[in-house]
Amino acid sequence: MRNPASPAFAAIITPIDRLTEAANLLAALSLLGIFILIACEILLRNLAGYSLPFAWDVAAYLMATSFMLAGASALKSGSHVRVTAIGETLSSTGARRLDMVACLVGLVICVALSVALTDMAVLSALRGSTSSSVIRIPLVYPQSALAIGAIILNLQMLAQFLRLLRGETLSTGPGLE
Fold this sequence. Notes:
This protein is an all-alpha fold. It has helices spanning 6-48, 55-77, 85-89, 92-127, 140-165. It contains 5 helices and no strands.
């Protein structure tokens, strides 16, 4: 059964899905950056006896960025771990209501995460905080990437809730339940 307001939800869900896809692309590029950076580090160290002093720090920042930016895509595609045992024992209406409650609880948690990460990035910007590594990377940059990923996850959690409201079933990855 479709909600009559579902076309209005499409105006919200579609841009969120596009933003999610863009974030997923940036997450993939972050992983590629890690690969290139670590490959260069290994090659330079073994062939030239030189080590990139920033390689491990930047790789760690890129990994965190990749993790946060890919979270919304994992949620949308159902490629995260999802426990469905309780929902399978309920009627379809009960399972949908349980999914809606889970989305709302997840949204509250994601909002708290976003606020904390945004506050951390703003505080680092105000204080001019830098990493303790040799090249002193301003922490506002990697922390902002984490905050942006968390905000996109919030938006995708909202999109999931709206999908449920309009009668859709959430995606689940095979073998991940």
